Each structure stands twice: as C-alpha cells, then as structure tokens.
C-alpha cells in the first residue's frame, strides 16, 4: 500500500464526511459530478497512439506502441494487448522509484480488464499470419500528477490512445506496407470510480477525498450499458444496494465521458 | 431471467457449490493456520502476528499494519508457473487485504504487523475465494480479534446463465466471473471484482447468488472452527 | 431491553451475537449499538453480579499487562539494558535499576544472552513496550530445570481457581513450578518427575476447555507417580 506521508488531519476527515452527508463536496461539486476533463489525443508523436488527460488536478499520459511477434501457443490466431503503469516519484511525494508496487499493478490491471473483458479490442484481427505472426499492442501509462482518481484518468487515456492509434498494415507475407490502419476497436469501454464517504457515494474522488474515503469501487461500462469490469478497492465495504447504485451511476457517467472522448478524437482529426 | 437447467462441467446445479473441506490449525510454526480444499483447489493460509513491523517505517501508532501475500506453487497449475510474485499475485494480495481488514480489529495492536500468507498448492478457479476463506480461519486460529468472519465465493455467467462457483473450464469459456467476499454477519461486501460482459440485472443476480454462496461457506467456517474443540 | 443470547461456557466464534443491552464488556467482545458480539473463538461467560459479558479466548498471543509475572529469555545485552523475549509480539526491556542493587560494568555478567529469567511486568505503554522487574525475590535468573511452553490462553486453567490446580501438581510431584502469564512454565524436580510434569502440563494445555479437568489431572498424576515409584523400587532391587 502507498504510504501516507502527509496523513490528513482528523478535522479535515470529519469535515469532508459531514459535507458528504449533506450532499456537498470540498470543491463544491455535486456527488455525481466529474471534475473538468481535458483530453488531447495523439499527444506523443513517437507513439502509434497516445493521449494526454487532465482530470481536475490529475495529469496522465498514455502511450500505445506496437510490435510484432509469435503468438501464444494457446491462442495461435490472436494478437496480444498488455498494459503497464508507472507511478513515478515526480507525480507525488508518496511515490517511490523502483519496480511497480501494488498500486501501479492494480491500476494497470483494472484499466486492462475494462478493455480486454469487454472484447473492445478484436484480438483476432490483430493476427497477421495465422499461427506465426501477430501484433502485440503495448499500452503504457505514465502518471504525471496524482490529484486523485488515477484509475479514471488512466482508463480514459488508455481507450483514447487505443482509439486514435494508427499502425502500418502488414501484408499476408508478414511484411509492413506503407499504408496505415486503426486498431480493431469495437467498443469504447469507460471506467467510473466512486468513493464511499460518510456513507454516501461520490463520483471521481479528488486527492483529499481519496485520502479519507472509507472505500472505493470502479465500474467499467460499454456503450450498450453492459458492465464489463468491477473492482472494489482498498478496504472498507459496500452493501449490495450501494454496488447497484454505483453500477447505475457508472453507466450514466461512463456515457458522458465516452462522448467527451469521441468528441476530442473527432476534433483532433 | 429464465433459469434453464444446464449440465455444468461436473453435473452441478446452477446454484450448487463444489465440495469444500476446511481444517483449522494445520501448520505448527504459524501463529494461526488453516487448509481449504475447494473442488480441486488446495489452499493453505498462515497468519504470523501480531509481531514487530519490518520495515519500521510501515508501523502505525493507531493500528496494526496488515500485509497479505498470495502465491502459487509452480506445480499448482497446468503450465508450470515460474516461482516468484507475478502481477496477478500482487493484485490478489492487495484485494485480499482489502477484504480482510474491515473484519479485523486492527486498533487493538498498534505498532505491530499482522501477516497473512496464502499459498495455493493446486489451482482450479476460485483460488482467491478459497484463500480469503482460509485466511479468515487462520486469523481466528491466531487469536486475532475479529468483528466477524469473512466468507468468500464467486459466481459468474456461463452460457447466458448466472451460476455459482465456477470451475476452471467454466472460468475459461464463460462470459463473466464475479469473485465476492462478505463479512457474513452484516453482508458488507469487502471483496468484489468482476470481469466479462453482464447487464445491470445480471450483475444484481450474480451478486445475490454469490452472497448466498458465501453464507454456505460461512456455516462451514463456523463448523470448522468449533470442531477443533469438539468434545 | 437486556437479553443474553448464548449459554454459559458456550463455544462461540467471532461475530456471534452474545447479548443485547447495557451489559458491561469484559475481554473478547465488542459492542455495536445495542448488540454485543464475540471477537474471538472462545467460551462465553456471564457474570451475574457485575452484569458483565466476556469471551475467554482459546487462542491468542501473549500481550503484556502490568503486574503479570512472566518467564523470559535474554535476547540482547545492550550497553544500558537487556532486551527480553517474553513470547509476545514485542520484546520487553529490563533496566539495570530494576534488576540490580549495585551498578555493574558488564551487564552480561548478570544475565547473558540465552539466560532464562522470572520477572514481573512493571509497566506497559499504549504500544505494548514493556519494562520488567527482577530485583527482588522470587524474581531473577532461573538455573537448571526444564521449560514447557503452553498457549497463554491456557495459563488460567493451569493455575486453577485460587491456584488449586498448580498447587495440587506441585504437592503431588514435590517440585518447583513457576508459571509465566506468557505461557512459559519452568519446572524443577527429579528427572522422572520433570517429564511427568511436562506431560501433565501439555495435557492441560490440550484439554483446557473440558470440564472435570482438575480431577482428571489428579487421577493421572497419582497413577503415574505410583508407576514411577514402583519402577524406582524395581530398579533399586536390580
């Protein structure tokens, strides 16, 4: 677990809890309101796909690179997607340098599952020469500034980067051509992270809220309203009714953010 | 949702658990321990603590520091697993801690550490649920004060049906997997993960079914604890 | 509204609902609103007089309490004090002022690493750092004898009501026995007796929760002692 170097004072914790009970928040947002979301697709020219995302004070960059290689023996006609995340020291006084700790690993895996499990990426279409050559898609998350809710910022960044990624088309012999194509992305799954504070559900927790939240749940949904991934995080707990309320919130907010993603990509082209 | 009786891989009904066996206090050196056999899963849990915190900077003045480690033996799976923690094991360790912490009265042991170790000897889907179930027994066996028992069980979606306790084949070919753990007394959900594709209604059904499964596991946990002292 | 939900000496698990109402809380229980739950695997006891509910745990590590007598092993000799392993989550400290009347340069000459001591817990802080005392009798270094370890939760059973169990054992075996609250027991007797006492203590450790244990123990000891005496006579005659 990330060590809290500047533990929030009990007074602040009580204050935030009391605000929540009254349906209010520190930054005057509504309980179901996201902070300002800024998305810049194709931010990194050297990457095949990328996105810079600002969610309130949180800043992340996600880059998509590809490689070609032999497929896994148990899926000989499918390509591969792999996601990793870095929480480098520059992003927060609480991050240490070194190999990814459990928070970075959880972040990468939750973002990955939302995309993988929704079958958003058609891995069959990543196959170049059946049984011999497939495309390997790397999604690399770099956090720049931890202002709270890295999960959603990175989730939005990842799907945006994948959606605007362009890669050279390979011919049937397995050689690259001069033409480029988009990734076979069938859907745009979006994560929605909700904090439980003062017994209430608050969407998109900012850093101070994150430090004192009793629990946290992330729900990924697709444009058909399906739930494609869920992760209850940290400790604390939820009642069944609270989980279902989170699912309903995630569908609505996920759709809102999906529209922002698609708009940002459209405007960039 | 219309329930069609389907033939599952081992002939179970939709809401039927695999055979589960539990034993408390199986490892001598540990402060508390338990063994759970769940279908073909074979899982050990050991608890060490409360003990001194190492490294020191993790110590907290207000409560004990809980560390959970999940690992799989190289021979526990079909394709030998390289020894050492992989990313999946690290994530499972984290969600396990999140599942158990709410049940432990950590405030009773400030400046100390409680270590929970789950080792999977044979895996057949549902190891984290078996692990959490065993870890709870081990914590009680170690004499660590708890608000109640944490019971875990997974449900899922296979062939468009919501079913309880997926076995390996169902996990591989199924459409969704939902591991869940509750503090049985209050039905507070302390572990919840899901991957797959489900509608909101299916999620509701899957969670309710998993909670039912957890309650059956809870009965078995109580029996296992009491039978250690049965006269 | 006050109601007890479980029976006396009933075996309960963490989370078992024990009672509802304004009872006072002993160990092994926690209150949530009107309801009182067990936090341990143990036996439920209700004290009618004090209207107190408690659960005596069957398992648990030793946590030092002021006034406890413990048996410890010297773990480290530092420049200004000893660190003692008292079979707990934390090492205890023994200050020379609490151990000696005179000043000594080399502390290891008094207690060295590995030495066993019988001590009193003088002070414990909120984070379980404890200070020991060995300055006066009966405390101090233990020489010879044998060490038995039992679960700290079984110590009250080994001691018995008003010390009846331990007194009975000492009497019958004509031995010296020191019981530490931390589950360590030091025994000094003839070698045949030491083994018997060890077995007896282990029996009590394993059956602490059953009833009629004192009588059972007495019977066991008497029959075993007879055997030892018969064997002794037999060997003398050989």
How does the SSE layout of this entry go?
The complex is a heterotrimer of chains A (269), B (231) and C (238).
Chain A lengths: L9 H12 L15 E5 L7 E7 L2 E12 L10 E7 L15 H15 L10 E3 L3 E13 L4 H14 L2 E5 L5 E7 L7 E8 L2 E4 L3 H6 L2 E7 L5 E7 L6 H29 L1
Helix pairs in contact in A: 2-3
Chain B lengths: L19 E5 L7 E7 L2 E11 L13 E8 L14 H14 L12 E10 L4 H15 L8 E9 L2 E4 L3 H6 L2 E8 L4 E11 L1 H28 L4
Chain C lengths: L2 E2 L6 E2 L4 E4 L3 E2 L3 E4 L2 E4 L3 E6 L4 E6 L11 E9 L4 E4 L6 E3 L21 E9 L5 E4 L6 E3 L3 E4 L5 H5 L4 H10 L2 E4 L4 E5 L2 H16 L6 H25 L1
Parallel strand pairs in C: 4-8, 11-13
Antiparallel strand pairs in C: 1-3, 2-7, 3-6, 5-6, 7-8, 9-10, 9-12, 10-11, 12-13, 12-14, 15-17, 16-17
Helix pairs in contact in C: 2-4, 3-4
* Largest inter-chain contact set: A-B, 37 and 35 residues
Biggest sheet features of chain C: 5 strands, mixed, barrel
Gross morphology of chain C: flat
What is the strand content of chain A?
A: 25-35%
Task: Report mean pLDDT of chain A, rounded to a whole number.
Answer: 93
Summed up, the helix count of chain C is 4
Low-confidence stretches of chain C: none
- β content of chain C, as a range? 25-35%
Count of strand segments of chain C: 17
Query: What ranges of chain A have pLDDT less than 50 throughout 5 or more consecutive residues?
Result: 1-6
Helix-strand pattern of chain A? HEEEEHEEHEEEEHEEH
Total helical elements of chain A:
5
> Would you count the extended β strands of chain A for me?
12
Can you give the helix content of chain A as a percent range? 25-40%
The termini of chain A sit apart by 41 Å
Which quaternary structure do these chains form?
A: heterotrimer
Largest sheet of chain A: 6 strands, mixed
State the end-to-end CA separation of chain C. 74 Å
What class do helices, strands and sheet pairing of chain A give? alpha+beta
């Amino acid at each position: 677990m990330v060590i809290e170097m500047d533990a929030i004072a009990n007074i602040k914790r009580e204050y935030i809890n009391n605000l929540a009970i009254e349906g209010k928040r520190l930054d005057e947002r509504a309980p179901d309101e996201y902070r300002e979301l800024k998305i810049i697709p194709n931010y990194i020219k050297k990457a095949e796909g990328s996105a810079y995302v600002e969610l309130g004070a949180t800043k992340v960059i996600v880059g998509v690179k590809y490689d070609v290689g032999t497929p896994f023996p148990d899926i000989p006609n499918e390509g591969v997607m792999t996601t990793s995340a870095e929480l480098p020291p520059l992003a927060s006084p609480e991050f240490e340098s070194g190999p990814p700790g459990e928070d970075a690993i959880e972040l990468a895996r939750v973002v990955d599952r939302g995309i993988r499990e929704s079958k958003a990426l058609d891995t069959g279409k990543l196959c170049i020469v059946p049984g011999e050559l497939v495309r390997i898609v790397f999604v690399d998350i770099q956090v720049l500034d931890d202002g709270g809710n890295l999960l959603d910022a990175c989730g939005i960044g990842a799907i945006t980067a994948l959606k605007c990624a362009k890669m050279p088309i390979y011919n049937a012999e397995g050689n690259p051509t001069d033409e480029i194509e988009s990734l076979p992305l069938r859907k745009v799954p979006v994560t929605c992270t909700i904090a439980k504070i003062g017994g209430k559900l608050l969407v998109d927790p900012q850093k101070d809220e994150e430090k004192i939240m009793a629990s946290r749940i992330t729900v990924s949904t697709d444009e058909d309203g399906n739930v494609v991934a869920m992760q209850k995080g940290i400790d604390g707990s939820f009642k069944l009714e609270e989980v279902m309320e989170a699912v309903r919130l995630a569908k609505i907010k996920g759709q809102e953010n999906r529209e922002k993603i698609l708009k940002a990509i459209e405007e960039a082209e | 949702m219309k329930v069609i009786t389907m033939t599952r891989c081992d002939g179970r009904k939709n809401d039927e658990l695999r055979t589960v066996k539990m034993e408390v206090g199986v490892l001598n050196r540990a402060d508390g321990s338990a063994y759970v056999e769940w279908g073909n899963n074979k899982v050990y849990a050991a608890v060490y603590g409360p003990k001194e915190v190492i490294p020191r900077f993790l110590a907290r003045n207000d409560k004990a520091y809980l560390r959970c480690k999940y690992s799989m033996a190289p021979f526990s799976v079909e394709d030998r697993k390289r020894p050492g923690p992989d990313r999946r094991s690290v994530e499972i360790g984290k969600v396990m801690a999140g599942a158990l912490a709410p049940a432990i009265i950590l405030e009773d042991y400030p400046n100390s550490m409680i270590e929970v170790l789950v080792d999977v000897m044979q895996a057949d889907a549902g190891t984290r649920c078996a692990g959490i179930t065993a870890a709870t027994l081990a914590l009680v066996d170690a004499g660590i004060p708890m608000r109640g028992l944490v019971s875990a069980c997974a449900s899922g979606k296979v062939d468009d049906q919501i079913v309880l306790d997926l076995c390996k084949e169902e996990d591989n070919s199924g459409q969704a997997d939902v591991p869940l753990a509750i503090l049985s007394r209050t039905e507070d959900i302390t572990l919840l993960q899901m991957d797959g594709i489900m509608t909101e209604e299916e999620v509701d059904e899957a969670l309710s079914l998993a909670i039912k499964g957890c309650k059956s596991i809870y009965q078995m946990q109580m029996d296992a604890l009491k039978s250690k002292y049965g006269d | 509204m006050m109601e007890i939900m479980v029976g006396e000496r009933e075996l309960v698990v963490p989370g078992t609902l024990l009672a509802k109402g304004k009872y006072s809380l002993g160990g092994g229980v926690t209150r949530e609103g009107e309801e009182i739950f067990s936090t341990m695997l143990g036996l439920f006891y209700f004290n009618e007089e004090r209207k107190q509910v408690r659960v005596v745990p069957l398992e648990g590590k030793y946590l030092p309490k002021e006034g406890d007598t413990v048996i410890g092993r010297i773990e480290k000799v530092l420049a200004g004090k000893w660190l003692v392993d008292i079979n707990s989550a934390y090492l205890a400290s023994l200050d020379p002022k609490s151990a000696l009347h005179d000043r000594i340069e080399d502390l290891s000459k008094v207690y060295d690493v590995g030495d066993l001591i019988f001590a009193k817990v003088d002070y414990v802080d909120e984070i379980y750092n404890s200070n020991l005392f060995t300055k006066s009798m009966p405390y101090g270094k233990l020489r010879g004898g044998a060490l038995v370890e039992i679960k700290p939760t079984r110590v009250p059973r080994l001691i018995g009501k008003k010390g009846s169990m331990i007194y009975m054992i000492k009497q019958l075996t004509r031995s010296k026995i020191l019981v530490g609250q931390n589950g360590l027991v030091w025994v000094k007797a003839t070698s045949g007796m030491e083994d018997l006492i060890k077995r007896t203590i282990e029996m009590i450790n394993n059956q602490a929760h059953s009833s009629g244990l004192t009588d059972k123990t007495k019977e066991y000891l008497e029959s075993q002692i007879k055997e030892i005496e018969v064997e002794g006579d037999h060997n003398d005659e050989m």
